[in-house]
Specification:
The protein is mainly β. It has one domain: Distorted Sandwich (Beta-galactosidase, Chain A, domain 5), CATH 2.70.98.10. Helices cover 1% and strands 46% of the residues.
């Protein structure tokens, strides 16, 4: 990235079938996505420091590692605490990395970076991010490849704030066909128990979000056609849908409650994830992927207009 590039990095635009996506290289970030001039995600300006992880790729873990500490392959590790108010390591290591541009086409771009072995994560993993648009929407595939000589823990996911149209989260209807929700502590959002969806978390039929607060991970998705989908619609029937494959068994959903008025409930964070929050501690039962030397793991999701 040159010194005169915008703060969010080199800007790349891809378009097809009425969709236009703007990608920024810092964090391999989806900076904006429109369908026929309608925003499908909450955008931010090119020359702005990306707020609240808006549109970033999360790797080598999504969500949190509690206290920044975990044990892997018999060794204890301690990560930097990047969520200081809750004392956790948040959203991986590539969110502020300026990715290299591997290839660009009118409807497709590929970005890459290498996570260097470091304190807390002594593993070397290449991260490849492909964005592609067609009549079905914006498709994203993130692939982690272990180029080191020891197994590496891995997880990934995106962090878009979906926008259904006019209004705020309170005005939109959510359909989230998940059977289970991961309960967390109120103060630090530490996972406690995986339970059947209940009360305000049972969103398997279209439900007005209203004033409810959500910042939880869901799993046990209805996958009748092999994929899961989370749909957000406005009063006029227009909206946006996130579709993801079975490599993403989890999805974090957050109503974006924030002390900054501009950010507060402006969009619904919908984050398909290959693993649950704190999977570096919970292990395979919560979806942690172990990349053997030379192995790769791809995960894909699609954002489409409704």
């Amino acid at each position: 990235m040159s010194n005169d590039a915008p703060l969010s990095g080199t800007q790349l635009t891809i378009a097809a079938a009425g969709y236009t996506a703007e990608i920024a290289t810092v964090g391999a970030t989806l900076r904006s996505l429109q369908h026929q001039d309608r925003d499908l995600v909450v955008p931010f300006a090119a020359d702005e420091v990306r707020p609240v992880f808006r549109g970033a790729v999360l790797a080598p873990w999504p969500n949190r590692v509690v206290d920044g500490r975990y044990t892997f392959d018999g060794q204890d590790h301690e990560l930097a605490l990047t969520e200081p108010k809750r004392s956790h390591a948040l959203h991986g290591l590539v969110g502020w990395t300026d990715f290299d541009v591997e290839s660009v086409a009118p409807d497709r771009v590929v970005l890459t970076t290498t996570i260097a072995a470091q304190e807390g994560y002594p593993f070397r993993v290449v991260v490849r991010v492909e964005y592609r648009v067609d009549e079905q929407g914006l498709h994203t595939t993130v692939t982690g490849t272990n180029t080191g000589d020891r197994p590496a823990p891995w997880g990934t996911g995106p962090h878009p704030y979906l926008s259904a149209g006019a209004g705020t989260v309170d005005d939109w209807t959510l359909t989230l066909p998940a059977a289970e929700v991961l309960e967390v502590t109120e103060d630090r959002l530490i996972p406690t128990a995986l339970v059947p969806v209940h009360d305000e978390f049972d969103l398997r039929t279209p439900t007005l979000i209203g004033t409810r607060f959500i910042d939880h991970a869901f799993t046990g998705f209805d996958r009748a056609d092999g994929t899961a989908s989370i749909t957000l619609t406005a009063a006029d029937g227009h909206g946006v849908r996130m579709v993801f494959g079975d490599e993403c068994a989890w999805a974090q959903v957050h109503t974006a409650d924030h002390v900054v008025p501009e950010y507060h409930r402006a969009g619904l964070a919908v984050e398909p994830m290959t693993c649950a929050p704190d999977a570096f501690n919970a292990g395979a039962e919560r979806g942690l992927v172990v990349l053997d030397p030379g192995a790769s793991f791809p995960a894909s999701w699609t954002i489409q207009a409704v």
